[in-house]
Design goal:
Elements: H1 2-17, E1 27-32, E2 38-43, H2 46-63
Antiparallel strand pairs: 1-2
Length: 67
């Protein structure tokens, strides 16, 4: 997975800084519930998840007034 960031990290950072980043569609799966019904689950790509976490680490202190 880290090979993706080594190969495309500069381009990823550039698209984020330019405001052109768009996450990939999530993988949709259904998982069974205890009552026999199915629950929909969306799984983001690894790159999108890393971008989400990095964004959260920057914005959370700002939102909480800890900047």
């Amino acid at each position: 997975m880290w090979q993706i960031f080594r190969d495309n990290g500069d381009e990823l950072r550039k698209t984020i800084k330019e405001g052109k980043y768009s996450p990939s569609p999530v993988r949709r799966v259904e998982i069974p519930k205890d009552n026999g019904k199915m629950r929909k689950l969306g799984i983001p790509t690894a790159v999108d998840r890393v971008v989400q976490q990095a964004t959260m680490q920057i914005l959370s202190p700002i939102n909480e007034g800890e900047s």
